[in-house]
C-alpha cells in the first residue's frame, strides 16, 4: 500500500493522507487564507466543507467519494442550520456520519473530518 500526504503540512498533522484506496482528511475548521472565518454555523460549515472538497480534489476524489464524516458542533442548537448546509454538499447517498457536541480548541462553531474511498 502506498501513502501520500496532500495539502500544506502543519506539524504535527497532515491535512489529508491517501493510503491505498482510502483518503483520510484531518479535522477541517473554518479557516480561509490562514484566518478564522467569522460567522454563524452556516457560514462556517460552508468554509469547512469547501476546505474538505479542495483537499479531496487534490487527492483525485470528490465529495461523492466520502464514505464517513465525523462532525463536532460547539452548540447542539446549531444542528438544524448545520444539517441544511451539510445536506447540500451530499445531495444523494450521503456518507455515514457521527455528530457530537463538544468544545473546540479555538473559537469556532464546527469541525469536520472525512474518509473517502476511491480505488486507484
Description:
The chain is an alpha+beta fold and 120 residues long. Helix content is 25%, strand content 34%. It has helices at 41-59, 79-89; strands at 3-6, 16-19, 22-28, 31-32, 35-36, 66-73, 96-101, 110-117. It has a six-stranded mixed sheet, with helices on one face. The longest helix is centred in the middle third of the chain and has 19 residues, at 41-59. The mean pLDDT is 95.
Radius of gyration from the CA trace?
14 Å
Q: List the helices and strands in order.
A: EEEEEHEHEE
User: Biggest sheet, strands in spatial order?
Assistant: 1-2-3-8-6-7
Largest sheet: 6 strands, mixed
**SS-derived structural category:** alpha+beta
Helix content: 25-40%
Strand content: 25-35%
The count of β-strands is 8
Distance between the termini: 11 Å
List the topology elements:
Elements: E1 3-6, E2 16-19, E3 22-28, E4 31-32, E5 35-36, H1 41-59, E6 66-73, H2 79-89, E7 96-101, E8 110-117
Parallel strand pairs: 6-7
Antiparallel strand pairs: 1-2, 2-3, 3-8, 4-5, 6-8
Helix pairs in contact: 1-2
What are the salient characteristics of this protein?
8 strands; 2 helices; 120 residues; alpha+beta; six-stranded mixed sheet; two-stranded antiparallel ribbon
Task: Provide a compact summary of the structure.
With 120 residues, the protein is an alpha+beta fold. Helix content is 25%, strand content 34%.
